[in-house]
Amino acid sequence: MPTTNALLALAVFGFGILLLYAPGVLTLRLVGLRGLALAALAPPVTIAALSLTAILTRFAGKEWGLVPAAIGLAATFGAALVLRALGVVLTPEPVPAARRFQTILVVCLAAGLVLAVVPVAVGAGGVDSLLQRWDAVYHLSALRLIDESGSASSLTVGALSYGTGQAHLYPAGWHAFASLLPLSSPTAVLNLAGTLTAGPAWVLGCAALARRVWPQLPPAPALAGLAAGLITATPMSLWVGWGHLPNAAALAMTPGVLAFGIGVLERAGASATARLGAGDGPAGPPSAAGGWQQHAAGVVVLAACAVGLGLTHPNAFLALAVLALPVAVVVVARISRLAWAAGRRPFAVGLPVVVAVLVVGGAVAFVNSPLAGAVTGYVGDEPDGAGAAVGAVLVGWYELWPHVVTAAVVIAAPYGAVLAWRRGAPWAAGSLAVVWLLYVDAAMGGPTGISSLWYTSPARLSVVTAMVTVVLAVGALVRAGAAAARRWPAGRGRAVAAAALVVLLAVAMVASSVYKAERTAKLYDPAATGAPRFVTAAELQMLADLDLEPGGAVLGSPFSGAPLLYGLRGVPVVFPIAGQVWSPAQQTLMDGLDDLSDPEVCAAMQELGVRYLYQDSRPYQASGDYRALDDLEVPGAEVVAEADTARILRLPDCNDM
Questions:
Q1: Which residues share a beta bridge with 476?
Q2: pLDDT digits 0-9 by tens, 35-52
């Protein structure tokens, strides 16, 4: 299997940064975005463009690659030029901060990115290392399918879930991006794409959200960016710990889109209140609301970002919706109250009714859609009791890599919600309540069902919760620090306190980084104990050295090393993923394992091209559907490769059995 040297990995990482950020930055710059918001929104806009281009490329009958991607990105840039020519641009928002705060922001963002990315890179042990998590193996197979089929369309990649290979819907925005990285090592592509999409966007997005929530606190964005990398419940931890690469990427982009969405809603509210004669409001004077072009530009940008989230992973779009809902409620309530006072009572009553109907109708439609059906019904690990779930979310001891550093950072979030309410942003408390309720429901096993659209997964909802609690806690800490500085007399005492804080922060950085590196190593090191393994080091080497008959398919459990033959080398396998809807031939074969010489079973084997059998006495997971494959005895079968607990057999012709 191919290996990647350090210089090539760095070069491809740089190319990936350019590919993910440059198109979005250029496009958004044309419609008026600047600064932190520009950087935070660039990835979802780029992913949206790549995803839609991949769909159109498939319709055009062309293969996916850098050329069609470049054409699609150029078209996106052209659309931005049209908007600019029509005057549909955003007025840059003023940033009330001195130049020194801008320097601090850059330094803290860089530090946050290092804290988010480097421990994982160290723990992985190398860019070509194999992440031994089921979802990671699934995404290796998906990338292989894209390479073989030439299609990264979200309308076709779902074919992997069907033994017949029929096209099916699967949000493939992450895969469309990852498949463009110019590397021959599948594991290197997966690791670099996971880092590129889950690391920088998370740090930038949390900083952008802090600026939106705390506009009067210049240090807040810098500290939020630093804290986003410092904590352990991050998108980086999600894709490493659980293998949820697209979900991690989408959730990493969510804080930045949420920050922009809040601004769009507040500007709409300011414009409406201005028309009702309300004068200045929390969003600023009427002039700050802008004309129709400003609102149109905001809606277009927000829609593009929402498409990027949805085509990367739909539950990030849902997270955006539920977190923005409290903001919408506050804005609608404010408009309705002022309309009532102005004597426009039909409008005052009708507006919230219409909004409620749209929200409820949209929620009902989505819940009953096939897309929602694909994520509901999941059951996680042993659920917590109500007391344990509530206690965990209150103190910040989240399911996703719980650590005292995370708890110490986010425990001040409730006080931050109170401070935000006092400054005229009651929706912050609403967003905090929403994420707490979702997390508690998931941790308890989904008794109410409200967390089912996030797979009833407290790990996934740890990230959704953290994006709110980190930002609120940072504002509370800045306020507390400012109050302490005012009461603490200048001099030696203050210097000692500042030095103590620096030491404490350094200890937290080291503790968090070591913990993340150790957790990562346990999931990458094939010799590590305490976690299930698809392959050991010897078995992975066996796969690399294997010389099989061209075109001969391998029959084996998807919880063994068999699917890695497909994902890493492109060797055809009967079951590239678990949970696949079996084809008639697959069903016939699995039903007839007791007698492979049966004419119908033999015909199924020939249809599937089965020539080899992969067996492992210690698979990643014991599964009733596939256990028989590991126990199967086939007279006349020849062992062609063997290592540790796995072996590969060449099967005799079923007609000769």
A1: none
A2: 999 999 999 999 999 999
User: Mapping DSSP to helix (H, G, I), strand (E, B) and coil, where does residue 650 land?
Assistant: strand
CB 58 within 8 A of CB 156: yes
Q: Which residue, among 118, 15, 109, has the nearest Cα to 69 in the 3D structure?
A: 15
pLDDT digits (tens, 9 = 90+) for 333-377: 999 998 888 888 898 999 999 999 988 888 888 777 766 665 655
Q: Contact at 8 Å (CB) between 593 and 632? A: yes
* 550 Ramachandran zone, left/alpha/beta (phi>0; psi -120 to 50): beta
Nearest-angstrom CA–CA distance, 600 and 23: 54
Q: Say what the pLDDT of residue 261 is.
A: 97
In this structure, what token pair is assigned to residue 603? 């015909």
- Yes or no: say if 304 and 45 are a contact pair by the CB < 8 Å rule: yes
| Cross-strand bridge partners of residue 556 | 614
Total Cβ atoms within 10 A of residue 557: 25
What pLDDT, in 10s, does the model give residues 238-265?
A: 999 999 999 999 999 999 999 999 999 9
Q: Is the dihedral of CA 361, 362, 364, 368 positive or negative?
A: positive
Q: What is the pLDDT of residue 97?
A: 62
Distances (CA, A) of 321 to 531, 614, 616: 35, 45, 44
Give the burial class of 173: count Cβ atoms within 10 A of its Cβ; 0-12 exposed, 13-18 middle, 19 or more buried.
buried
> What is the dihedral sign for C-alpha 620, 626, 632, 637?
negative
d(CA 227, CA 234) in angstroms, rounded, equals: 10
- Ramachandran angles phi, psi of 612, nearest 5°: -135, 155
Neighbours of 606 (CB within 10 A): 14
Q: Looking at residue 382, what is its pLDDT?
A: 80
What is the crossing angle of helices 492-524 and 235-242, to 10°?
Answer: 20
* Alpha-helix residue ranges (DSSP H) falling in 276-385: 286-289, 292-312, 314-341, 345-367, 370-373
CA distance 40 to 206: 9
Flag residues of the chain having pLDDT under 50: 278-289
pTM above 0.90, yes or no: yes
Residue 251 identity: L
Contact 326, 430 (CB under 8 A): yes
Asked if residues 440 and 393 have their Cβ atoms less than 8 Å apart, the reply is yes
Closest CA relative to residue 239, chosen from 437, 519, 45:
519
- What are φ and ψ of residue 582, in 5° steps? -70, 145
Q: What is the pLDDT of residue 288?
A: 44
Angle value at C-alpha 23, between 18 and 26, nearest 5 degrees: 115
Q: DSSP string spanning 429-493? A: HHHHHHHHHHHHHHHTT-SSSTTGGGTT-HHHHHHHHHHHHHHHHHHHHHHHHHHHHHHSPTTHH
Strand partners, 647: 615, 642
* Longest pairwise C-alpha distance within the chain: 93
pLDDT of 98: 60
